[in-house]
């Protein structure tokens, strides 16, 4: 850090005034509005964005470092980060394959939950990477350690889908995969948006349909999906029919219950997540200088300028509703509007110059 301090106005600290305005319409009364002081810091560049990784090994290793820092802050300082996202993990510019966890402004002090709960929302983070538990239960869910850990899985998936070679790098399937991170449902009369079952269903499937060219990435994602989906499984209830079940069925049921319990116990271990990342990072190939695992799969989603965009189709006199898709191309929810098909321009004939 080069410099920092409280911002001042006319020689006095610049503070917020919202905590005094009890009659403001945006003050719901559920949370106390804290008095805040504007603070500035001037930093130097210490890393590059996670999306600028050069190899799958660098991606996974950097995430291992970030989650180890996350765990150390939780164990030694009793601080929970609460915003594990692709934008909050950097790759060190000085040390290859090393990661840095930044942006702790949403963190909460676990030793002071009673006071912090009065002024901090119970659910926070970057929507695309929030756990399925938090997005599905907007009013009742309380942000915990396992939610941050699950966010790391969603960051890995997001980076891999966008920037590693896999079998679904076409426009239709890419859009479907990325919608998993953005989807939500508006609930009438409820100010909170609610997530869909997309993330949970993907984890429950074990990501079997998504196959990356870098094989250890597949095994890492499936291992994490298997662990995190366990927390959403319901305990099986004993019924009268269980007494008449075949011995083989009972054995399978007992084995599954033991596996589920083992996964739940593993997730409670402080070192569990970052050690899993490190174990698979060393299995990933080290690339030669100039080689890259990074690719831009999102090119297939970028707008085709030969097709109309949302702004081109909007007409104030028309009551039709338009939605914007991932690639920026207008998608109509009114059957009366048909999007123009791509226009193919015939190749130009080469003109010969000079005399025959």
UniProtKB/TrEMBL annotation:
Region (Disordered): 332-356
InterPro entries: Kinase-like_dom_sf, Pkinase_fungal, Tyr_kinase_AS
Residue ranges annotated for the Fungal-type protein kinase domain, each copy included: 34-159
PROSITE patterns named among the record's database cross-references: PROTEIN_KINASE_TYR
GO function terms (MF aspect): protein kinase activity
PANTHER family xrefs: FUNK1 11, FUNK1 6
Protein name (database record): Fungal-type protein kinase domain-containing protein
